[in-house]
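Question:
Now give any protein.
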Amino acid sequence: MNLTATSEEAIIAACQNIVRKKGLSAVNMRSVAAECNVAVGSIYNYFPSKSDLLCAAIESIWIDIFHMPGSLPEFADFVDCLSWMYESMKVGGRKYPGFFSMHALSFASEDKVRGRRRMEEYFNHLKESLLEVLNKDTRIREGTFNEVLTPELFIEYILTLFFASLQDSQQTCDGLIEIVKRCLYRSVLDKS
């Protein structure tokens, strides 16, 4: 066993490897230490609790799935962004089997609040990025949004449907894309 300290990056890489092979539920201090070939105490030097370790691992997996160093790439329109997200998540689901159904259930009960808060921060970043893409979409018909259906609420609804479609193992997001097109774009309404 390598008793010397490892790095945070090596620990996160080990977590990702464990999730790929055995699923998120297999990530714990001992399994990560074994994967890194270090003493368990070395893991605690970087992550004081299992919840901290899981939060960092989950966040790194989301970043890996979306290949996001900090923001979303440029898109032609909001639909293009949703299609990219769906494909990225399908690839991520194959790379990290069971990740989407398990990550919300992964936190130790005593650290649930902190873990959820950290994931909410990540999803708020995702929502802000989607809102930015939505606001840049010049194809959106005038009058789409108002005080009842705001862009922010629209993003909330779309993300809810988006994640539900992933958990239902739908092969495409065509239905969701059609809903978005009918809500946002005039040309789709003119054709129906």
